[in-house]
Specification:
Length: 1523
């Protein structure tokens, strides 16, 4: 055997022994199987060998044996139950040499046969109840029955959230019963824990993952009780409850014992409750423990608030302190620690701070120690001299404790004031007088002693003034009446007066009173005399007057009787009989009711009593005398009569008697005649044949007599003062009365009369103009559509009650008329009377008025706010009456006598029914009164608007009711409520209520919203219209109610559209609809739609097929559908046909013209003959003329065009047509040039040439032709129009809502160019539906210093190229963005981004963007702009103190101290305080700390928020008050 053969046998044997082949071409599918016990299994064995000898399966069950010539074989077992099965697939390969044996190889199929239980059993050594004791060992068992293979089994033990995993190494493939045991020692932490075990069979990726769990096993662990505390220290007021935790299960019963007796642990402990306590716990077992309880409490300091000691005496000042732990006591003065000596001096006086502190807290107490000592000597009080009327002061000061009290001894006067302040007493003398002369003594005293000092005050430049007062200070007594005068000292201190009496010429009257009982002594001159201590004796005279009213007063003319002549001076005298004293007499003169002169002090005495004739001096005499007063008067011609009277009045001040008037002196005034030159000019023209009246009128008194003087040759007629003349000449009018005569010469001039000729000419002119007007009007009426107006049923405008409307809503002015008839005129209310127009022939009626009442109100009516002040004056012109007054619930005056006016005043008028009346009681007659009209108004407390029985959005076309509530307003009749929608008034309501008191009113509005109202604001406005005399109170508005109107989708172009496919051009189907809520779009078509079309309003594609496309726009209110029809465009050969036809026609025309008009020489001729050489006598101009004449004629034969002679031989014409020559081309060029220049330019004018119109607004443009036109029209998708007779045509759309191509005006003219067109520059704009601003990729507050993006979105705006987007920070524009580079004209959505880096200054700033359409000069001004809602920037930044530097403060004991740690930050900083002293008050989260119990030391405040923290330090130094 060779070496190679032996090697192959060895390798084959080894491969066979291991069951492998070096390259066994066997593949198992699947390579391994996992089968449940008793289930079906099937595995395919295949080979890649081309021609195996045989294959087969070797297994205890399902073996196939050797199968020849196959390349795959399947092992199948219907129910696998053999646990140890190991099937093998083997193959016998054909050898390369037929004489040799082939190789055999095999593969073993890994088979896992498993079984798994449906449940597991759980058992415990603690039994099913799970009751355990702490510290005991327990065993938990999990039994898994009949499981295989067990080596794939894991058991997971769950103890609450803890897990423990156990696995098994049993290699057995057959089912076994497996148990898993868990041992543990129970602890209190296991109480309530639930145990369970989970069996899991992991069969690898080929097999299933099987799990089964036992039921939960809860465990209860009993333990304790355990007492976990020793000695306890608690604060006074706290309880023992919870201070000593006791743990146990079952829950122990805890009892507290003190001194062997149970005590309630929930009762707060006091300091006396400290001591030994026993806590007893009863649970699984019973235990107890003794505990010492300490009750802690802070210091309690008991000291007097103040302590008084006598200087150099031993003090007994003590304080009591309590606290646990025991406090320490320290004394402080002026911030320094001090010790208190046994004997105190005045230097020890002051304020002390006593501080008691322990480990819990500290307490301070302030005590004022006062050291008493007597007043010191007074040194600053000196003698003083003061000027009269000046101000001076005396100073008295002394040092002592207690502070000395001061007492001044001096003559008490009103101008002397004593002020004591800060231990100093000052005596001030203001406006020094003689009464201030004297001695002034100051006393300073306290309980220890007293001192005094005296100074004398002298007043320079004045005489002493007697300090007496006489009541009355002036006595005015009527003759034969009695009165009383009293003299008293001005000082109420009786010790200042030694003696007081009256001194008269007859003697002395002791006492203070004097009676005037003498009726004969007209000048007693009483004097009051008194003696004052320090001043001496002084006197004061009584101003005494005895008066007598005149016996009579009369007036007469001096040295004249009868009438007086105007312009002459006369004397009039007033005689007053027996009056005294004459020095106080005043005489007033009256002409009618007008004062003309007053006389006082210049009267002439006409008689004296016999015994006083030598002393009748006006300035001296006091007894009754007769006096007279004389005036000079000169009367004018305007006074036919005059009456004079005089009035005598004694001016004695407030006690003056009533004046006495004379009877009137009636005087008749005569004056010379004066001729009226206005009615009678000096020159008068008279037309021939027309007599003229000369009227002579004269004014004079007595009435003058009129006489005309003229030549006797004149033919006149005289009738009184009228003279009728017809001839030229001089005529004299003479007027005469008893005073004098006057005359006037009139010159009459004779003129010819041309008036009839002028009148005839005017009449003819009027007739001609009328005929022309009627002719023109008839033409105008026939060619113009005129509206006919009817006044049968006029409708009054709500804005103007005097305007009527016709059927076309055109206003015709119509005035309301009222026809007044006497039957109702007298009872017509005033408001109707003022609207009446009285015909000229009807006299307006006189309504009855009340009788005259001689009182006037400063205002007939007042309008006053509720609670406001009011003041009205009632006055009378009557001099004699019994009194007047105001009658009212508030401010009544009662009856007041001797007054001419009274004021009704109320500071706070709150009577809604106030109706004050001013009444007047005349001397004779009945009482009269006038009522004051009072209107009290009150503005509403609130004005609000609310919907009735509806909330949320409105639906277009549905009726809704809104209500405006006005609360507490008065008076309601003056109230008007106006409803606004935006800035437009939509409803106004007034009220007719009679209530004067405040009421609650409401106004209802029935409202049917339209889609244009979406987003509009509705509000109401209440106003009180208080008339022209009242105030104009401000109007009160309600908060606006923003309308949200929902409406069905409406297509921008609702009609069905037909579009034609033109090559590969893109087709746009615009289904844009407007609706609220925003419409959702869907498309339907019989063709498959390649592009995504869901919710697309515009479908643009070049791949659309002919057919019908339906677009539906839907929202919550309904669905609308629009149809698009796409058709193929037919091929258009019109242009090609037109070009060919025109070319052929032009060629034929030129050929015929050449035949007719071109001669043999190539020139054009209109005449043909037989001249040699064929020359013609007409040049090219004639030929052109012929061509021009036949330009529009029909085609004729060549001979007819050539000669206009129908008898010419045809042969001759033919010869001429054939002989054209070489110049034919020149003729064609000339003809073309002539035709090209014969036309005119396009003569169309658009007015206006550029139109800017808003979406949905009307538009109208006129197109006018400047030359005759055959057809004129507009080509447009909407509003197309044309005309064949007018020179202008109008393109008009009532509501433009289509984004159409620009309209074109075209014209077809009679002359070239025959047709031309002008395109209208149309700009259709739409303001955006919304402008919104948001933050990009960010929500919530911003952080200072970081960069953010703000996005502004504009929805549905057109045209976008005119848009300017402006960004604002507050009111400042920070950026603008234009979109001029964009070209779409239909609505689009655009956006703009603003980059910002906020700072703390931006916190609270509002950012907004404004979309502005600048549409040029033809657009609206100002440009339409839409604002976004503002974006409020909330910027976070770290805290920063307003005053960051450290602060040092002085602590004054007892005074409140403020530590201001305020910091600016966002979010708002949180504050914490730290100090070396225990802090009694809670300081957390307080920016400002104010307290009077702070101690000296350092305090640190920290302000922090999310972004950082900052600290600030305060240093407090103790300082006490000074003495």
């Amino acid at each position: 055997m060779s070496e190679s053969t032996f090697l192959r046998l060895v390798v084959g044997f080894l491969l066979s022994a291991t069951g492998l082949h070096a390259s066994c071409p066997i593949e198992l599918s699947p390579p391994s199987v996992v089968v449940r016990y008793g289930d079906y299994v099937s595995v395919n064995c295949s080979t890649s060998a081309t021609l195996p000898d045989s294959m087969g399966w070797e297994a205890s069950r399902g073996g196939t044996g050797l199968i020849p010539d196959v390349n795959n074989v399947t092992w199948t077992v219907e129910r696998l139950t053999d646990w140890s099965i190991a099937p093998k697939c083997y193959i016998n390969l054909r050898p390369d040499n037929p004489s040799e044996e082939g190789d055999q190889c095999r593969k073993i199929l890994p088979v896992v046969l498993y079984t798994f239980p449906d449940s597991v059993a759980f058992s415990s050594s603690a039994g099913s109840a799970g009751l355990m004791n702490e510290g005991e060992m327990h065993t938990l068992t999990c039994d898994i029955q009949h499981i295989a293979p067990v080596q794939n089994l894991t058991v997971t033990w769950h103890k609450g959230s803890e897990t423990t995993i156990k696995s098994f190494n049993n290699p057995s493939k057959e089912p076994v019963n497996q148990s898993s045991v868990l041992r543990f020692i129970a602890s209190r932490h296991d109480d309530g824990v639930q145990f369970r075990c989970e069996a899991h069979l992991d069969l690898g990726p080929e097999g299933p993952s099987l799990s089964v769990t036992s039921p939960q096993y809860p465990v209860t662990v009993h333990f304790g009780p355990d007492i976990s505390c020793s000695n306890i220290s608690i604060l006074e007021g706290e309880t023992l409850e919870g201070r000593c935790p006791v743990a146990g299960n079952p829950s122990p019963n805890v009892i507290w014992l003190k001194d062997g007796k149970p005590t309630d642990p929930t009762v707060p402990l006091e300091r006396d409750n400290a001591g030994w306590y026993t806590i007893k716990a009863e649970g699984r077992i019973v235990i107890d423990r003794n505990i010492w309880v300490s009750v802690l409490y802070g210091p309690e300091l008991s000291c007097p608030v103040s302590y008084t000691a006598v200087e150099y005496a031993t003090h007994n000042f003590t304080c009591t302190v309590e606290g646990y732990p025991r406090p320490n006591i320290t004394f402080y003065k002026d911030g320094d620690k001090v010790d208190l000596p046994e004997k105190l001096t005045r230097s020890h006086a002051g304020q002390y701070m006593i501080i008691a502190s322990n480990q819990l807290s500290s307490i301070s107490h302030t005590v004022d120690i006062d050291v008493l000592y007597p007043p010191s000597k007074i040194n600053e009080l000196e003698d003083t001299e003061v000027e009269f009327g000046s101000t001076m002061g005396l100073k008295c000061s002394s040092m002592g404790n207690p502070r000395p009290e001061y007492l001044w001894s001096h003559y008490q006067a009103d101008n002397v004031k004593v002020e004591t302040e800060d231990g100093v007493s000052r005596l001030h003398i203001h406006d020094a007088t003689a009464n201030n002369i004297g001695s002034y003594t100051c006393y300073a005293r306290n309980e220890i002693g007293i001192v005094s000092r005296t100074a004398r005050v002298t007043v320079k430049g004045t005489k002493p003034e007697c300090p007496l007062k006489i009541t009355p200070d002036r006595m005015v007594v009527q003759y034969q009446r009695e009165d009383l005068a009293t003299c008293t000292p001005t000082s109420t201190i009786s010790s200042n007066v030694k003696e007081i009496y009256w001194q008269l010429p007859q003697g002395v009257i002791n006492g203070t009173q004097w009676f005037d009982r003498s009726h004969e002594d007209w000048d007693p001159r009483p004097v009051c005399t008194a003696t004052f201590e320090g001043i001496g004796t002084c006197q004061k005279h009584l101003d005494f007057t005895m008066y007598k009213t005149p016996d009579s007063v009369s007036v007469q003319s001096v040295n004249h009787t009868g009438p007086m002549v105007a312009g002459t001076e006369y004397q009039v005298q007033c005689d007053i009989i027996s009056v005294a004293p004459v020095q106080n007499l005043t005489v007033r003169w009256y002409q009618g009711n007008e004062t003309i002169k007053s006389k006082a002090g210049t009267l002439r005495v006409t008689s004296c009593p016999p015994q006083k004739k030598t002393d009748c001096d006006n300035n001296v005499i006091r007894t009754p005398v007769d006096v007279s007063s004389t005036i000079s008067v000169t009367l004018g011609r305007n006074q036919h009569a005059a009456d004079f009277r005089c009035e005598a009045r004694l001016d004695l001040g407030p006690q003056s008697p009533s004046s006495m008037s004379s009877s009137s002196l009636n005087i008749t005034v005569y004056y010379k005649p004066v001729i009226n030159g206005t009615k009678l000019p000096t020159t008068i023209p008279v037309f021939r044949g027309y007599p003229e009246e000369l009227v002579c009128e004269a004014e004079g008194h007595p009435p003058p007599r009129i006489q005309w003087l003229y030549s006797s040759e004149k033919v006149v007629r005289v009738s009184g003062g009228t003279l009728i003349v017809s001839e030229a000449g001089s005529y004299t009018c003479n007027a005469t009365n008893d005073v004098a005569s006057s005359f006037l010469v009139v010159e009459v001039i004779l003129k010819e009369d041309y008036l009839p000729l002028i009148a005839g000419f005017v009449a003819v002119t009027v007739v001609i103009i009328s005929v022309i007007f009627v002719f023109i009007y008839s033409i105008y009426y026939k060619n113009t559509k005129m509206r006919r107006y009817s006044l049968k049923n006029p409708r009054l405008s709500t804005q103007n009650g005097n305007v009527a409307h016709n059927g076309w809503e055109t206003q015709l002015p119509m005035t309301k008329l009222c026809f007044v008839v006497p039957a109702w005129a007298a009872v017509a209310p005033p408001q109707d009377r003022k609207n009446c127009h009285w015909p000229a022939w009807v006299a307006p009626p006189t309504w009855p008025v009340s009788a005259s009442c001689p009182i006037e109100l400063s205002t007939p009516s007042v309008v006053v706010r509720y609670g406001g002040s009011v003041s009205v004056t009632c006055s009378t012109s009557a001099t004699e009456h019994e009194g007047m007054g105001w009658e009212s619930t508030y401010g009544a005056t009662g009856l007041q006598e001797n007054v001419t006016f009274l004021i009704w005043t109320v500071k706070a008028l709150k009577d809604w029914t106030a109706a004050p009346k001013c009444f007047f009681n005349p001397s004779a007659g009945d009482q009269c009164l006038k009522k004051l009209s009072v209107t009290i108004y009150k503005m509403p407390d609130s004005v609000s608007i609310s919907p009735l029985s509806h909330m949320g959005p409105m639906v277009e076309g549905t009726k809704y009711h809104m209500q405006c509530d006005i609360v507490d307003v008065a008076p309601v009749k003056n109230l008007s409520v106006t409803w606004y929608k935006g800035n437009d008034i939509i409803h106004t309501q007034s009220y007719d209520g009679l209530s004067k008191t405040p009421v609650n009113e409401s106004s209802a509005l029935q409202f049917t919203p339209h889609r244009d109202d979406n987003g509009a604001q509705l509000f109401c406005e209440a106003q009180l219209n208080l008339g022209p005399s009242g105030p104009n109170p401000p109007m009160m508005k309600s908060k606006p109610h923003e309308l949200t109107v929902q409406y069905l989708p409406t297509f921008v172009r609702p009609e069905t559209e037909t579009l034609r496919i033109a090559g590969s051009a893109k087709i746009i189907l615009n289904c844009t609809a407007v609706g609220n809520p925003m419409p959702v779009y869907s498309w339907q078509s019989s063709h498959p739609m390649e592009e995504k079309t869901e919710n697309q309003a515009v479908l643009a594609s070049s791949m659309l097929h002919p057919g019908t496309y339906n677009c539906s726009a839907s929202n919550a209110l309904g669905t609308r559908t629009k149809q698009f029809i796409i058709a193929e465009s037919p091929r258009n050969r019109t242009t090609f046909s037109a070009i060919v036809g025109v070319s052929v026609a032009l060629g034929v025309l030129l050929f015929i013209a050449g035949v007719i008009f071109v001669n043999r020489e190539g020139t054009i001729s209109t005449r043909k003959g037989s001249s040699p050489g064929g020359r013609t006598s007409s040049g090219i101009s004639t030929g052109m003329k012929g061509a021009l004449l036949f330009q529009h004629s029909s085609l004729q034969s060549c001979q007819a065009r050539s000669s206009w002679n129908f008898l010419s031989p045809f042969s001759q014409s033919t010869a001429h047509c054939e002989n054209m020559g070489n110049n034919f081309l020149k003729w064609i060029i000339a003809l073309c040039q002539f035709y090209s220049v014969s036309g005119e330019g396009c003569s169309l004018v658009l007015k206006p040439s550029r139109v800017v119109v808003g979406f949905g607004e009307p538009v109208s443009v006129s197109c006018e032709a400047a030359r005759p036109v055959r057809v004129l029209g507009w080509e447009s998708a909407i509003g197309a129009a044309h005309t064949q007779q007018d020179m202008s045509v109008q393109w008009k759309v009532d509501s433009l809502i289509d984004w159409i191509e620009e309209p074109i005006c075209y014209g077809v003219f009679f002359t070239a160019p025959r047709q031309c067109e002008e395109k209208l520059n149309l700009v259709l704009y739409k303001t955006p539906d919304s402008v919104s601003i948001v933050s990009v990729n960010h929500t919530g507050p911003m952080v200072e210093g970081k960069e953010y993006q703000l996005l502004c979105e504009i929805q549905n705006i057109a045209p976008v190229q005119y848009l300017t987007l402006r960004w604002y920070r507050g009111q400042t524009e920070v950026y603008n963005h234009s979109f001029s580079e964009l070209m779409p004209s239909s609505p689009v959505q655009v956006s703009s981004i603003l980059m910002i880096t906020p700072t703390k200054a931006d916190n609270g700033v509002q950012y907004r963007c404004v979309a502005e359409l600048d549409l040029g000069p033809e657009g609206p001004h100002p440009p339409p702009a839409v604002n976004s809602e503002p974006l409020n920037a909330s910027v976070y930044y770290p805290p920063s103190f307003l005053s960051p530097e450290p602060e040092m403060l002085d602590l004054i004991v007892g005074a409140e101290l403020t530590l201001n740690c305020t910091a600016a930050g966002h979010p708002t900083p949180v504050y914490t305080w730290q100090s070396s002293h225990p802090i009694q008050e809670k300081m957390e989260d307080e920016a400002v700390l104010s307290s009077s119990s702070l101690l000296p030391g350092t305090y640190t405040c920290t302000a922090s928020n999310k972004l950082g923290k900052k600290s600030k330090q305060f240093t407090i130094k103790a300082k006490s008050k000074g003495v």
